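Quick log. Single chain, no ligands specified.
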Amino acid sequence: MKNKEGIYTVQAIEEILPDKLKTFRKLAGYTTAQVGALLNKTPSAVTLWETGKALPDVNTLLKLCNIYKIADLNEFLDTNIAPDIKSLAKSEQELIKLWRRANPSLKTAIKTILKQCNK
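-> predicted structure:
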């Protein structure tokens, strides 16, 4: 959904972003009210973004990256990230929520342990 220069088009952003916003919110374990409070916005504003009836501005998207522990804006648009959290088992959903809230040193330790266990 990028143009020939590798840049996301406005149409692509409008199609992809709403589902991604909802997915990342759920993965982080937040309600629309909680996200709204963190952004000094109403829960209905968050719902409008997640339904595609409105789009957040760039500053809000950057704040959402911080809230959801997302590296950058490209992750919001990456179509390789599963858009349907319901397709994950409950245990996987819980692990993702815990992972997103973990600090970097804990993430490094977990990766090391998993690599050792899967040798």
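The CA atoms of residues 3 and 110 lie 38 Å apart.
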